[in-house]
Structures are given as C-alpha cells and as structure tokens.
Amino acid sequence: MAPRRQDRFTRAVSAALSAAAFTFALSTLLFAWSTSAAALVGVNGVLGVLLPGIGTLLTALGGLLLAVRAPRPLRFWKVAAGLAVMEAGFAVYLVSYRPLASGHPTTAGFALSLMKIAMIAFCANAGRRWGPPVAAFVAQGVSALISAIVGPMVGVAYAPDGPASFALIFVILVSVGFAIARARGAVANRVVEALRDEDAVRVARGAVRSRAAAVVHDTVLNDLAVIATSEPGRMTPRLMERLQATLDLLNSADWVGAPDAPPEQGAPGATLQRAIDHVRASGLTVVLNGDMRAVAALDPGVEHALGRAVEQCLVNTLTHAGTAQAELTVIAEENDVTVMVADNGAGFDMNEVDEDRMGLRRSVQGRIREVGGTVRIFATPGVGTTILMSVPRATAERPIGVEA
To answer: CA 39 to CA 109: how far, in whole Å?
Structure first.
C-alpha cells in the first residue's frame, strides 16, 4: 500500500474506532444507570433514581466535551475540563451507590466498574497520538483516588478494579499501535519525498544540460554556419549585431537557466520577425504568406518558442538545402496556429539523421512540444523539405487580430 494511502487508511480506522468508543461509552453509561435505577426505585422510590441520573448525565457531558473539536491552544483545557466533569459525575454516582449494595460493597462493584470503563472509552476521543492513553490513565487514576477517599466515607470499601484496568491497557495498546503506524507512515512519506526530490534534481540537471546544448547549437553553431555561407569580405551590420547578441547571451549569468524565456519587452511576434530578419541578412530569401497577426496574438512564451523553432528551420535551409529561398506560411485555425516552412532544396532522409543531431530534435521538435504543440516533417531527398509546426492559439483575453 502506498505511504499516503496507508496514512489515510490509518486515519480513517482511527476515526472509526473513536466513534465506536464513544457509542460504546454511552451505551455502557445507560446500562449502568438503568441497573441502578431499577434497584433504587424499590429502595427510595422514584426520587431515588435522581442522584445516579445526575452522575450519569455529568459523566456523559464530560465524554461529549472530550469529543468536541477545539482550536489547538484550547485542546489541553478542553480535555482537562472533560475529565473533571466526568470525575465529578463518577463521584456523584459513587455516593448513590451505597443504597444499592448489600453485604460488603466495594468500589469494584458491577455498576461502578461500568462507569470507569465508560470514562476510559470516552478518553479515546481526547485527541491524537498520545492524548487518548494519557487521558485514560488520568481518568483511571483520579477515579481510583476518588474511590479510595469517598468510597469509605459513604460505606463502600476500596478495591482494585480489574475490568477497568484491562480497559485502560486496551486503550494504551491501541493508541501505541496507531502511533507506530503513523510513525512508519511518516517515515515512508519522508522517503518518498526524498526520492521525489532526487528525481526532480536529476530531471533539472538533465534539463539544464539539454538547454545548454540547445543554446550553444542555436547561437554559436548557427552563427558559424551563417558566417560560412556569407559573402567574402566585411560582415554586414545585421550579422555583427547578431554575433554581439550571442556574446551578450553567453556572458549573462543565467544563459542556461531559461533559454526559451520570452523577452521582457518587445512587440508581439518580435521573435519570429527577428528570426526572419536574421536569415534574410545572411542571404536567404523568405517569402511570407498568411496572416502574421495570428503569430503576434499568441501567448508570449509560445510565440517565442515558435520563433526560435522557425529560425532553426530557416537556418537549416540556408546551410543544408542548397537553395537561397524558403517559403513561410501562417495558417490560423480554430484551436491552433500552424506555421509551415518549405523549400525546394536538397531534402533529406529522416531515417539517416544521426541521433546526436540537435537541429530538428531539440531546437524544433523539443521547443514546440514544450509549449504543447506538434511538429510534422515531410522531407524527400532531391525534392525539398516541408515542416509544419502547430501551437495552441491565443487565449480569450487576447484574441487573434486584436493588437496587444
């Protein structure tokens, strides 16, 4: 059984036993009082049942007070008050017990023993953990003290009460059993939490390594590829600006922390537009089709991931396809936005792509899947490549076509 499920099961069983103990205590009180009333009616008439009735009522009220929930600062005083009321009821009942006895009555008599057992059963509702056994021990000790002092004063000799002592031992054993079960459950929960923390650390480390590799691929390697395909001579201002942005990113303190985080400022769709501008500055002609406002209306994080993925697709066209033109089409559908990047270049066979190649797997497929999207790749050697990237549409607060 799972630790948390076992802990819930233990609590449910404990609550059921507490309710059963309360019901048993009330039944025992009523049985003790009915026995006294039947005997006292014949001795003192109807008025003779009043005194044991008051004692029984006080004991029941004390038990009810133990079962009532109270704020943590008041729990001790609630238990103390409940025990005091129960013991007062027991003392009243003891005083009324003398007329019932014949011969040599003792405080271990049938009706008095039932009263003590009922008080011990009420103590099952005196709190959690060690509250019930401590309360039961106090109740048994105080009732024994009252029996030893008040009993001889009213003609009832003191005698140890075996059944009440057995009831006390039973409550203590049950409480210890539940305490051990809870302790074992707590240890198991701590072990599970520790394992979860360890797994979380392992996953976080793997994510950081993956992000670091993706950042290096998307910046350094892509920049080198763009430089390699540029015309000889002095670099263009836009290419120099791109290289400076890469250096600034790698020099920042959190360049690995969240590489796909959207920029804090910038117009909607800025990431996609920068991607298009970068590859155009490197010599790739990008033909745009569709409504670009659909991309601008996306959630900033989704738009940023989509823009970075599109940039990788265009860089792949520039460096591997052997063509100077690509087509980018935006398709706005009811539930998502799809961007298609297509070229008629060299194409490739997906089955022949090495596992360690990160361009499509991490920079395109990984990014789109992280934001809840899908990627479909259609590539044929000698024909060209078409990549469809679908991402969730904008929320209702920012519908497509409405400027932010």
So the answer is: 14
Contact 327, 315 (CB under 8 A): no
Cα–Cα distances in angstroms (integers) from residue 379 to residues 135, 346, 374, in the given order: 78, 9, 17
Percent of the chain whose pLDDT exceeds 90: 9
CB 99 within 8 Å of CB 48? yes
Give residue-wise pLDDT tens across range 65-112. Answer: 888 888 878 888 988 998 999 999 999 888 877 655 555 678 888 888
What pLDDT is stored for residue 249 in this prediction? Answer: 63
Buried residues in 248-287 as b, exposed as e (16+ CB within 10 A): eeeeeeebbeebbebeeeeebbbbbbbbbebbebbebebe
- What does the pLDDT average to over 206-218? 63
Mean pLDDT over each residue of the chain, to the nearest integer:
77
User: What are residue 104's phi and psi, to 5 degrees?
Assistant: -120, 85
- Is residue 227 very low, low, confident or very high in pLDDT (cuts 50, 70, 90)? low
For residue 294, list its beta bridge partners.
none
For the chain, give every residue range classified as CATH 3.30.565.10. 260-392
pLDDT at 404 over 50: no
Phi, psi of 401 (to 5 degrees): 95, -10
Judge whether 303 and 262 are in contact, CB under 8 Å. yes
User: How far is CA 320 from each of CA 201, 228, 252, 345, 362, rounded to the nearest angstrom?
Assistant: 37, 12, 31, 8, 17
Where are any strands of DSSP class E within 194-245?
none
pLDDT at 387: 92
Q: What is the DSSP string of 261-314?
A: PPPSS--TTHHHHHHHHHHHHTT-EEEEEE-THHHHTS-HHHHHHHHHHHHHHH
When the candidates are 3.30.565.10, 3.40.250.10, 3.40.630.10, 3.40.50.300, the CATH number that belongs to 260-392 is 3.30.565.10
The token duo for 404 is 């932010």
- Roughly what angle, to the nearest 10 degrees, separates helices 237-251 and 270-281? 130
Residue 354 contacts by C-beta under 8 Å, 6 or more apart in sequence?
none
